[in-house]
Amino acid sequence: MKISARNVIDGTVKEIKKGVTTAHVLIDISGATITASITNESVDELGLKTGAKVKAVIKASDVMIAVS
Amino acid sequence: MKISARNVIDGTVKEIKKGVTTAHVLIDISGATITASITNESVDELGLKTGAKVKAVIKASDVMIAVS
Amino acid sequence: MKISARNVIDGTVKEIKKGVTTAHVLIDISGATITASITNESVDELGLKTGAKVKAVIKASDVMIAVS
Amino acid sequence: MKISARNVIDGTVKEIKKGVTTAHVLIDISGATITASITNESVDELGLKTGAKVKAVIKASDVMIAVS
Amino acid sequence: MKISARNVIDGTVKEIKKGVTTAHVLIDISGATITASITNESVDELGLKTGAKVKAVIKASDVMIAVS
Amino acid sequence: MKISARNVIDGTVKEIKKGVTTAHVLIDISGATITASITNESVDELGLKTGAKVKAVIKASDVMIAVS
Question: B32 and A29 in contact by Cβ < 8 A?
């Protein structure tokens, strides 16, 4: 499957923190960490586990840039 | 300045592609590339140039996860 | 590929209106029409054409509800 | 009221699943289903019930396209 | 019409800057200014003009908070 | 720190309503109120309290316009 989102980045699940309905999934991207907030339901449906190979999908318009 | 967005990731500007009003800024994040779509106006105001140290700011709820 | 977005809806491309950098793609969803705004670059990479079978991918948190 | 969002689609509430603070509302759009994630508070304020006529409001830039 | 977005704020159009396809609309909110980026098409359909009474509609999850 | 988001608006925290994992923070913007939905974790990290001076950060593309 190919998607119109500009960012489809390979990573590895580092940690999954499940809340009541929402989970925070920490993804290792060649050393950097990206946190995704998705539903617990999605975590289960995708079969996510620590160490799993995943793709972080982010629209380019959802990436802001900050400078010090 | 601190911000409520969960992802504030250090990177380096790799390339800036200016369009008519919108620019695509490619940011190197420890080897991976993240593309941000921001206004040309923002590129100028932030003084972005190839090689500049920046932070990619992304809300956790804007990060989706895909698996093959 | 499976994705964490709650809405992955089957549809057919009805019309593609390319602008300078952004395209509006009208997708027929069992009679209703959903418009997606994506880059011209994505239209080309995905090989989109009128009549193509596609999936509209929308996060549940990006769907608002209005009542009269 | 008219709104700048490109997608204002007529539908019927099919099911409401209330969580602790967030509800998932399933909307029938001429046979297809779109899920909206809104606050329980909004469900109450809008007086949403199964069978209610509603509009799903989605910005075109929040619709991604995927192809197999 | 009532909508599930938490922020529906009364304002007055201060300035409209049309680009090739996208317009920046500056809205005065009791002295503060909020900028909306919408399509030129929406500007025309809504009949927006300087001085027009409008509502800025923003989902609560799209508002970030920063502190110095 | 400067950010690419078009709206960085000065305000004062009016009220903080913590939920299980998400907080609604009401910000006074020269008389108008903007509600932000952020994680409880962010509220703590930013040290938010009633009366605190903050900035509401909103991308221009996340502001819709409605007219009656």
Answer: yes
pLDDT digits (tens, 9 = 90+) for B17-57: 998 888 999 999 999 999 999 999 999 999 999 999 999 99
Dihedral angle, C-alpha E61, D66, A60, D22, nearest 10 °: 10
Contacts of D20 in chain A (CB under 8 A): 20-21
CATH number, position E25: 2.40.50.100
Q: Quick check: is A29 in a domain? A: yes
Q: Do residue C67 and residue E21 have CB atoms under 8 angstroms apart?
A: no
How many Cβ atoms are within 10 Å of A20's Cβ, its own excluded?
14
A2 part of contact set with chain D, CB < 8 Å: yes
Residues 6+ apart with CB under 8 A from F7: E34, E35, F56, F57, F58, F59, F60, F63
Report CB contact under 8 Å: C68, E21.
no
pLDDT tens-digit readout, A32-68: 999 999 999 999 999 999 999 999 999 999 999 999 9
Nearest to D64 by CA among E10, B42, C48: C48
Please name the residues between 38 and 67 in chain D that touch chain A, using a CB distance below 8 Å.
Answer: 61, 64-67
E67 in any annotated domain: no
Is there a domain that residue C67 lies in? no
Interface test with D, best of F17, F22, F63 (most D CBs within 10 A): F22
Could you tell me if residue C34 is inside a domain? yes
